[in-house]
C-alpha cells in the first residue's frame, strides 16, 4: 500500500508568538503536507503568520466547546491521519524522525509523552510529570469528547511511545491564572449540564486533596518554586470549578 501523508491540526487564539517559536520543525517533516487551523477570532498576527506557512485557516468562534472546535477542524482535513498539537507544543527530534518513517497503513493510534516547561522551567514531577497524550489518529475512527481538556476517543487500539512533545506552557503567571479562570468556567458549566452537584465539603476537601496528591505524593516539591506554584494553581483550579458549580446551582 502507498504511504499516506499526515495533516497537522491546530486550534488557535492570539498565538502569534508561539507559532513563530514552535512551527519551524515542519521543514524537517515532509510527511506533513497539510496544516489545518481553526482560529477563534484572533486579534494579533496569528492568521497572517499561518497563511504565510500556507496553512488552511478557518475562523470559527470557540463558543466554550473545544471538542466541537476540533471536530470541525478535522472535517476540513484531506488526509486520514491527523497529528494534533497546541500552538505552544512542538515534537522532539526523535518524534519528528518517527513521523517521517512511520508505517501509515497500521490501524492504530499513537500517544506520545509530553514534557512540560512551566515558567521556563522543565517540570519532572507533579501533575504534569510525563503523561501520555493520544495525538496521532485516523479521523474516521473516533471523535473528540469533553467541552474542555478534550480527548480523542477511538475504536482503534492505542500505543504509548516514549517520544516527546515539548510543551512550553505559561511564560507568565498572568497567562496561567487567566487560563485557569477560563477553563474552570467551561468545566463548571459542563458539570452543571451533566447534573453533577457539589457541596461545601467538596469545595474544601477536593482542592486540599489535589494539592497533597500533586505536591507530595507525586513529588511536585522536587520541582522547586515552579512546582509549588503549579500545585497551588491546580488546587485553585479545583476550588474554582466547584465554587462556580455551586454558584450555578444556587443562583
Strand-helix topology:
Blueprint: E1 6-12, H1 16-22, E2 32-39, H2 46-52, E3 56-59, H3 66-74, E4 81-84, E5 89-91, H4 93-100, E6 109-118, E7 121-122, E8 132-138, E9 143-145, E10 151-153, E11 158-169, H5 173-193, H6 200-217, H7 224-249
Parallel strand pairs: 1-2, 1-4, 2-3, 6-11
Antiparallel strand pairs: 4-8, 5-11, 6-7, 6-8, 9-10
Task: Give structural notes.
The structure is a single chain. The chain has helices spanning 16-22, 46-52, 66-74, 93-100, 173-193, 200-217, 224-249; strands at 6-12, 32-39, 56-59, 81-84, 89-91, 109-118, 121-122, 132-138, 143-145, 151-153, 158-169. The chain has 2 domains: 6-165, Spore Coat Polysaccharide Biosynthesis Protein SpsA, Chain A, CATH 3.90.550; 173-249, no CATH class. The protein is globular and about 60 Å long. Strands 1, 2, 3, 4, 5, 6, 7, 8 and 11 form a 9-stranded mixed β-sheet that branches. It has 7 helices and 11 strands. It starts with 5 loop residues before the first strand and ends with a helix. A hairpin with a 2-residue loop joins strand 6 and strand 7 (121-122). The protein is an alpha/beta fold and 251 residues long.
Amino acid at each position: 500500500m502507498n504511504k499516506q501523508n499526515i495533516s497537522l491540526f491546530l486550534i488557535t487564539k492570539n498565538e502569534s508568538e508561539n507559532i513563530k517559536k514552535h512551527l519551524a520543525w515542519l521543514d524537517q517533516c515532509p510527511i506533513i503536507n497539510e496544516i489545518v487551523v481553526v482560529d477563534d477570532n484572533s486579534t494579533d498576527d496569528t492568521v497572517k503568520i499561518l497563511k504565510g506557512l500556507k496553512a488552511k485557516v478557518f475562523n470559527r468562534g470557540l463558543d466554550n466547546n473545544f471538542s466541537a472546535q476540533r471536530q470541525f477542524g478535522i472535517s476540513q482535513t484531506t488526509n486520514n491521519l491527523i497529528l494534533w498539537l497546541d500552538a505552544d507544543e512542538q515534537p522532539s527530534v526523535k518524534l519528528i524522525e518517527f513521523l517521517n518513517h512511520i508505517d501509515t497503513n497500521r490501524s492504530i493510534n499513537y500517544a506520545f509523552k509530553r514534557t512540560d516547561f512551566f515558567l521556563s522551567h522543565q517540570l519532572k514531577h507533579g501533575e504534569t510529570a510525563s503523561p501520555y497524550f493520544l495525538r496521532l489518529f485516523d479521523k474516521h475512527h473516533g471523535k473528540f469528547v469533553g467541552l474542555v481538556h478534550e480527548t480523542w476517543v477511538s475504536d482503534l487500539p492505542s500505543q504509548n511511545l516514549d517520544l516527546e512533545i515539548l510543551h512550553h506552557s505559561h511564560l507568565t503567571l498572568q497567562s496561567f491564572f487567566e487560563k485557569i479562570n477560563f477553563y474552570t468556567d467551561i468545566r463548571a458549566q459542563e458539570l452543571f449540564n451533566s447534573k453533577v452537584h457539589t457541596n461545601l465539603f467538596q469545595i474544601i476537601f477536593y482542592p486540599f486533596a489535589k494539592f497533597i496528591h500533586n505536591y507530595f505524593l507525586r513529588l511536585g516539591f522536587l520541582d522547586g518554586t515552579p512546582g509549588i506554584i503549579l500545585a497551588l494553581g491546580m488546587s485553585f483550579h479545583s476550588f474554582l470549578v466547584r465554587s462556580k458549580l455551586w454558584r450555578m446551582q444556587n443562583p
